[in-house]
Every structure is written in structure tokens, then in C-alpha cells.
Design a protein that fits this description.
Radius of gyration: 21 Å
CATH topology of the domain at 221-384: Rossmann fold
Largest sheet: 5 strands, parallel
Number of strands: 11
Bound molecules: N-carbamoyl-L-aspartate
Mean pLDDT: 93
Low-confidence stretches: none
Structural class: alpha/beta
Order of helices and strands: HHHHHHEEHEHEHEHEHEHEHEHHEHHHE
CATH class of the domain at 221-384: Alpha Beta
CATH architecture of the domain at 221-384: 3-Layer(aba) Sandwich
Helix content: 25-40%
Distance between the termini: 23 Å
Strand order of the largest sheet: 8-7-6-9-10
Oligomer: single chain
């Protein structure tokens, strides 16, 4: 069975690095025809792409790959999980494990997962496998979406939350906990308040381990779903990521999502980063240096929000990580750092996208991303959380070595899910 038309076309555009306008011109079809081919199949405006176009696009992509093979670019060798492995182990601990090529290969697998994530299809490729979800720090979406992703591939989940009810409260070491869990489950996702602790868990077992957030260290699955969201939104808007302006706002010192995200974005070229934070909560120097070393990026740091977000293609807001900082630093986070409707009206563009890893702190005085943007279609936060499922399914499929089986394993769902999940979800003129 050939991959779905949407998956095929999205992959081709990513590989060729072309916007919808550029791609439709390259293959000689009208932009409107391409848009209708790019819709998910159940959509009303979906049209079947002629077979001759599929053959032509395949040829263009293969020629491009051939050109690359004879250039300096590193050739793809082995499975994706082997190429991102750490010391031959199938783990996801840091975004440093990815190249632009391997990250886009993961997104191709995430695209294949979309019909399952959107509840049109079911799969049982992980039937019999058990996931251990070990969360020693507060979490809702990361824990549940990892669990749901595993279940939607046919696996089951066992979990434990917090230290109080775990044997760590009795003084058990990370090594012992990890080795014991490895005997019970087939993969683990771990969130822990200490930076580096998930790598310690991973060193004590040979089963796949995923970092669900280690203190103020990294949060690779979040960064992957953030990048996937940016690329999907940009495709709809007809933009390329190379050369884009990304404004990152908030607690950049302790926010692990932004540490992973800026490193991942740095795999692209010519980005302008504006890093907006109050004094004392700036992005760590080692991350700025890592980003500065590649891709011809421009990095600006400021504590002036208006200046930092003006004209940005993406505004990525984050919560102040109160659990990790001292009270005097919180006082520095005033209303002048809040992204709200008035601010967006004045300084953003009609196609700026607004993101946040969530949760947003809705308490008074928190000055986190305002709820007055909830009906603004530029607010991508729930499209972003929805993308957590296909991305985490793709991560598991790759780490467990079943990604090539998914396409053939899909069956139609037997129940009928809602067409729009949220009451305020925007419809983008039929565009996906
Ligand atoms: C983030 C986290 O835990 O790092 N949440 C998440 O996983 N989506 C961000 C946060 O807690 O502020």
C-alpha cells in the first residue's frame, strides 16, 4: 500500500525545501490543486492527485537525492534508530542526537501517524509491549500524551508519579530503580527534577529510554513537536523555516523546552533568534554558543518585549519556572513581559504564529501568555499540543523498530470521534 498522498507530498516538499507556491510552480500545477491534494482524505475538499504527478514528484526527489549523494552531504545509512542511537542504545535524551535529515525523517513517520492520532485509523504494532511512565515531577500533557501515544500503537502503560509513592522515597538509587523497571517494561519515559538524571536512568538499562524533561536540562520530545508544529504551520502559510525570525520569550534560563528548541531550530539556516527575558533569566551561554556555531544565525538578546517580537514569524512564550528559581527573580517578571491581544495587535504580523509549551500560568500576576488570545487563529497552542501524539508515536515506533510496519497495520476506527476537538478551533479555509 502506497503512503497517503498528504504524507507523500509533505515529505517531498520538506526534502526539496520548497514552499507550496514554489513546489506547485516546480511541478507545473495550480496552487489550488496542490492545496486540495494536501488535505487529509476525509476532508470535503480533498482531491486525488493524478498518478502521473506522483511519478513526476518521485523522480524529482530521487534526482535531488542522487545529487546529494555525490555532494558532501552525509549519506543515510542504517535505520533511523541506529543513526540517532547513543552508544548503540536506542534512547532519546537530547536533541543533539538529530541532524536536519534525521529530524525530517522522524516527521515523515509522524505524518504517517496522523490518521491514527486523529482517530480515523487504529494500529496494534506495539501489541503486548508495556511502557513505564516514571514522572517524578509535575506533568499532565507530557505524561498523558506519551501514554496515549503508546496505547494508540496497541501497547499498554504502567505509571508512577512523584517521589512520595516511589521507592526513591526509601533511598533507592536511580541505578536500582532503572534496572528493576527494565525487567518489567519494554520502554521508559522519565521526568525528573535533576538535570542529567534521565541519562543516569538510561545508563542503567538496555531498554529504550525517553527524556520527558530533566530539571532545567532538556525536553527533546517537546522540541520535536514544536518544530513539527512550526513546519506544519509554515507550510499552510507558504513560508520556509530557513531565514525565519523566531522570538523566544520568558524564563529562558530554567525553561528546558526552549533549551532543546533553539538547538533543534539551529539545524536550519539563517534564522534570526530574538531571546527576550528579564535580567537574570537569560538563555545559558553554552546554548547560545552552540547555536551561534552553525547555520549562519543571528542571535539577539533583549529585555524589551516589544522590540523582540516585532515582525516575528513565531513568538514562543514560556512560563516562569517558579519551582526552580528564587523569589527575587520572580519579582523581575512584570506585566511588561506578557504576550496579550493588545501586544499582538501592535507588534505581530497577520501570519505570526504564537506558541507555548503549556501549561500557561493563568493565576493573576503570573503575566504568562494571556487567555485574551484564545480566539485568535494565530494562537497555535492547541494545534501544538495535538501534535504531541503523532510525534510521540513516531518516537516510540522508531525506538522500538516498528516504523515500517505502521502503514500496513492500520484499520478503520469503529467509533465516531468529533470532527473538531475544541469548541474554538479555527478552520483554516479547508487547509491542513
Ligand atoms: C513544560 C515542561 O515541563 O518543561 N511543559 C511541558 O512539558 N509541556 C513547560 C513548563 O512546565 O513550563
Amino acid at each position: 500500500m502506497a503512503v497517503a498522498q498528504q504524507v507523500f507530498l509533505r515529505d517531498a516538499m520538506r526534502k526539496l525545501n520548497l514552499t507550496r507556491d514554489m513546489f506547485s510552480a516546480r511541478i507545473g500545477v495550480k496552487r489550488r490543486a496542490l492545496d486540495s491534494w494536501l488535505l487529509p482524505e476525509p476532508s470535503h475538499d480533498f482531491r486525488v492527485m493524478p498518478e502521473v504527478v506522483r511519478r513526476f514528484v518521485t523522480e524529482i526527489v530521487e534526482n535531488e537525492a542522487l545529487l546529494e549523494k555525490y555532494s558532501d552531504a552525509a549519506p543515510r545509512r542504517g535505520s533511523l534508530r541506529d543513526r540517532i542511537a547513543i552508544n548503540d542504545k536506542h534512547q532519546l535524551l537530547s536533541v543533539d542526537q538529530f541532524t536536519r535529515d534525521s529530524v525530517e525523517e522522524l516527521f515523515y513517520i509522524a505524518d504517517i501517524m496522523q490518521p491514527i492520532a486523529r482517530r480515523q485509523k487504529v494500529s496494534r504494532v506495539l501489541e503486548g509491549a508495556v511502557l513505564g511512565n516514571l514522572f517524578f515531577e509535575a506533568s499532565t500533557r507530557t505524561r498523558v500524551s506519551f501514554g496515549a501515544a503508546f496505547c494508540r500503537l496497541g501497547g499498554s502503560v504502567c505509571d508512577t508519579t512523584g517521589f512520595t509513592f516511589s521507592s526513591m522515597a526509601k533511598g533507592e538509587s536511580i541505578y536500582d530503580t532503572s534496572r528493576v523497571m527494565g525487567g518489567y517494561v519494554d520502554a521508559m519515559v522519565i521526568r525528573h527534577p535533576e538535570q542529567g538524571s534521565v541519562a543516569e536512568f538510561a545508563a542503567a538499562t538496555n531498554i529504550p529510554v525517553v527524556n520527558g524533561g530533566d530539571g532545567s536540562g532538556e525536553h527533546p520530545s517537546q522540541a520535536l513537536l514544536d518544530l513539527y508544529t512550526i513546519l506544519t504551520e509554515f507550510s499552510r502559510l507558504g513560508k520556509l523555516l530557513d531565514g525565519a525570525h523566531i522570538a523566544v520569550v520568558g524564563d529562558l534560563k530554567y525553561g528546558r523546552t526552549v533549551h532543546s528548541l533553539v538547538k533543534l531550530l539551529a539545524l536550519y539556516r539563517g534564522l534570526k533568534f530574538t531571546l527576550v527575558s528579564p535580567k537574570g533569566l537569560e538563555m545559558p551561554t553554552e546554548i547560545i554558543e552552540a547555536v551561534a556555531q552553525q547555520g549562519n544565525h543571528v542571535i539577539e538578546q533583549t529585555n524589551n518585549l516589544e522590540q523582540g517580537i516585532t515582525g516575528a514569524d513565531v513568538i514562543y512564550a514560556t512560563r516562569v519556572q517558579k519551582e526552580r528559581l528564587q523569589s527575587e527573580q520572580i519579582r523581575g517578571y512584570g506585566p511588561e513581559f506578557q504576550i496579550n491581544a493588545a501586544m499582538i495587535e501592535r507588534f505581530a504580523t497577520p501570519d505570526t504564529i504564537i506558541m507555548h509549551p503549556l501549561p500557561r500560568d493563568s493565576r493573576p500576576m503570573a503575566n504568562d501568555l494571556s487567555v485574551d488570545l484564545n480566539k485568535d487563529p494565530r494562537l497555535a497552542i492547541f494545534r501544538q499540543t495535538d501534535n504531541g501524539i503523532p510525534i510521540r508515536m513516531a518516537i516510540f515506533a522508531v525506538l522500538m523498530g516498528v516504523e515500517t510496519l505502521v502503514q500496513h497495520s492500520m484499520r478503520d476506527v469503529t467509533w465516531s470521534p468529533p470532527t473538531h476537538i475544541g469548541p474554538d478551533d479555527a478552520i483554516f479555509h479547508g487547509m491542513d
